[in-house]
Automatic annotation (TrEMBL):
The keyword Metal-binding applies. Residues 10-129 form the CENP-V/GFA domain. It comes from Amorphus orientalis. Keywords: Lyase, Metal-binding, Zinc. This is CENP-V/GFA domain-containing protein. It holds the Pfam family GFA. PROSITE patterns: CENP_V_GFA (PS51891). One of its GO terms (molecular function) is metal ion binding.
């Protein structure tokens, strides 16, 4: 008899710690989204998402706020600090989680860009053409 498979567990939450979640499934499709809706929802030029089955996702602390961002789309966020946490479509079997909200965001490696028709012109090649900064080098104003 073989040993039971270990369940992959990932966890994450918001910036202030008021809302936490657990993923009991290997991370799925991971992509940089350039759509205008995501840009406006999080205030950033790109959002990186990873997907897991809805049944493998659970809130473990706090109660997130929800915002219907389209006829079928529902986004969750922390009511205290505003961190964007999830996106799901009505009737879908997966939920998308913001990679940056994972405790170990390095575990979710993106393999593609999506909605590139909305990509900001200055974002072309952002992951290979810009210099690396270990920390932000603040420039005097």
């Amino acid at each position: 008899m073989s040993a039971p498979e270990e369940t992959t567990v990932h966890s994450g939450g918001c910036f202030c710690g008021a809302v936490r979640y657990r993923l009991s499934h290997p991370l799925g499709d991971t992509a940089h989204c350039h759509c205008r809706m995501c840009q406006q929802a999080v205030g950033a030029p790109v959002v990186t998402w990873t997907s897991v089955p809805i049944g493998a996702f659970a809130w473990t602390a706090g109660h997130p706020g929800e915002h219907r961002s389209s006829e079928r789309g529902l986004r969750s966020f922390c009511r205290e600090c505003g961190t964007s946490l999830t996106f799901r479509l009505d009737g879908d079997t997966v939920i998308d989680v913001t990679v940056a909200s994972l405790d170990d965001p390095e575990a979710a490696v993106p393999d593609r860009n999506i909605w590139t028709g909305s990509r900001l012109a200055w974002m072309h090649g952002f992951d290979r053409d810009l210099p690396d900064e270990m920390e932000e080098n603040v420039k005097p104003t």
